[in-house]
Amino acid sequence: MARVQILLTNDDGWDAPGLAALRSIAEQLGDVHIVAPRDPHSYAGHRVTTDAPLTLTATAPREYHLSGTPADCVRVALTALFPRIDWVFSGINRGGNLGVDIYSSGTVAAAREAALLGKPAIAVSQYVRRGLPLDWRCAADLATPAIGRIFNYAPQSKEYWNINLPHLDNGGIPPIIDCDPDDEPLDVRFRREGDLFHYSGTYAGRPRNAGRDIERCFEGAVTISRLRA
User: Which of 114, 154, 181, 193 is deepest in the core (most CB within 10 A)?
Assistant: First the structure.
């Protein structure tokens, strides 16, 4: 049986520790190819580049960084570099991509772009609690069974998945929950100083609905949301 071909990307940049953590998972599942942004593109959403050339730089065999967005990386990889890719993994993002974050997240946009181009994809994000150290090995351990579960699903056309990992301080084994993304807005507040508006909302203080991904991840579960491009 042919080995699974997996493309990795992210929005934190090609040298981010979260990408290395995701690679450690992908290497257990198949052959890894990487096209990641040269620079960080957090909150880039599904922005793409069509009015300027993109610079591709090789960093190792089957590994590149690109002077573009996460969605650009997927476009170039799937159409020009690695057309035989079977799955696309994006992440592991530093910070949650819960609820309506999926619209502003470059991490999720990369998975969505892959789905639009006909490849099943998984976005993985690590929620970060302020003041608690982040252990990327722990993040990889939490993400591995969730990604394995998705591999057993039957992907439908233009489907992709969004995984969020809880930030634990007790080393426990959290449940893995399939749930819908929340549709409540972020905590949108601003502090005004003359003509300047400083965002003052808090991520953890955002509204949430019972049983959806924000509440479940904040409670300590790994959440999986099945999405459609």
Answer: 114
Kindly report the pTM of this predicted structure. Answer: 0.96
Q: Mean pLDDT throughout 44-65?
A: 97
DSSP string, 4-21: EEEEEE-SS-TT-HHHHH
User: Which domain covers residue 122, as residue numbers?
Assistant: 4-228
The count of domains in the chain is 1
Three-state DSSP state, 170: coil
* Lookup: tokens for 134: 């982040």
HEC profile of 89-130: EEEEEECCCCHHHHHCCHHHHHHHHHHHCCCCEEEEEECCCC
User: Considering the chain, what is the average pLDDT of its residues?
Assistant: 96
Report the distance separating Cα 166 and Cα 219, nearest Å.
8
Q: What is the CATH number of the domain that holds 65?
A: 3.40.1210.10
